[in-house]
Design a protein that fits this description.
Helices cover 81% and strands 0% of the residues. With 312 residues, it is mainly α.
């Protein structure tokens, strides 16, 4: 795979982390701008998660039916337009709707980029390319809040969404000019309905459901952290908005570290062995975090060690 193509796929993979994490430091500023509470601003994040869930289910069947480029170009265009709508939002309700549309467009890059890798690479190469794309997924949550905090201080919350708009437009231009159609000609193109019937079969697979539930619980903890941490760090503990990214980024750095350790650990034991132990570690650290939070410590540091484990 060529370097330009890898960069395009990396940019597409970054749509989700950037759109989620870039604007987190702006929650208090958004609450002030719209005359509401920070808790209500979290609705814009929930709307993004809902849109991302729906979009990920749809783009797989669409990419199999219509090819890779058309759904991808549509998604990137929708992401760019919705990002601009976020920047121009005059109320929280408008922002929530725009964020939902932004997610519907942005998850096209997350889904179709992986499909393109499978189209172009053999299994060993696919694993190597995915590892590079996962590095993007890990670095984006570290860098995005830091950059978002600096932009917020320099130009206001609207500048964050303007940057997302420009990022989407540039990525869309790169896709249009440099990303070929990777679905081989002559490949059977099932109907969109066939794709959803495959989903129904997966829901009857107990092993799939067990692994999905374990991963879903872990992701739920991470998303709860993403939604609540701006209020806790910035509002309750007075962390400056431009410094919030350091706390958030340390968690993402831990995520990268543990994922690399996991790759080495799998050489010695199978995934089921480690998953059974990771689930208990996740539950224990979440319980410790809950107990610490109930005591309402005056300092921030007692929250951080269990917080680092419970969101991984």
């Amino acid at each position: 795979m060529t370097l330009p193509l890898l960069l395009i796929l990396g940019a597409l993979t970054a749509f989700g982390p950037l759109a989620i994490d870039f604007y987190l430091p702006s929650f208090p500023a958004l609450a002030t701008a719209f005359g509401t509470e920070v808790e209500r601003v979290q609705l814009s994040l929930a709307a993004y998660f809902i849109g991302m869930t729906i979009g990920q289910l749809a783009y797989g069947p669409l990419a199999d039916r219509f090819g890779r480029r058309l759904p991808l170009l549509f998604g990137v265009a929708l992401f760019s337009l919705a990002s601009l709508a976020c920047a121009l939002a005059g109320s929280l309700e408008q922002l929530v709707v725009a964020r939902f549309a932004q997610a519907l467009g942005g998850c096209a890059g997350m889904v179709v980029a992986r499909t393109v890798v499978r189209d172009l690479c053999d299994p060993p190469t696919t694993a190597k390319v995915f590892s590079r794309l996962m590095l993007v997924m890990g670095l984006a949550p570290i860098l995005a809040p830091l950059a978002g905090g600096l932009l917020l201080q320099a130009s206001g919350w609207q500048s964050i969404f303007v940057c997302l708009t420009l990022f989407g437009m540039l990525t869309g231009l790169a896709v249009a000019l440099r990303l070929p159609e990777t679905l081989a000609s002559g490949t059977p193109r099932p109907s969109v309905g066939d794709g959803f019937r495959h989903y129904a079969r997966l829901l009857r697979d107990r092993e799939f459901l067990a692994f999905s539930l374990a991963g879903g619980v872990a992701m739920a903890g991470m998303f709860a952290y993403i939604a609540g941490s701006p209020f806790i760090f910035i509002q309750l503990y007075g962390v400056p908005e431009e410094h919030y990214g350091w706390l958030f980024g340390s968690n993402a750095a831990g995520f990268i570290l543990v994922s690399q350790l996991n790759a080495h650990a799998l050489r010695w034991r199978g995934p089921g062995f480690w998953l059974r132990r990771a689930v208990w570690l996740h539950a224990a650290s979440a319980l410790v975090l809950l107990l610490v939070a109930l005591t309402r410590p005056a300092a921030l540091w007692p929250l951080l060690p269990p917080d680092r484990k419970s969101t991984r």
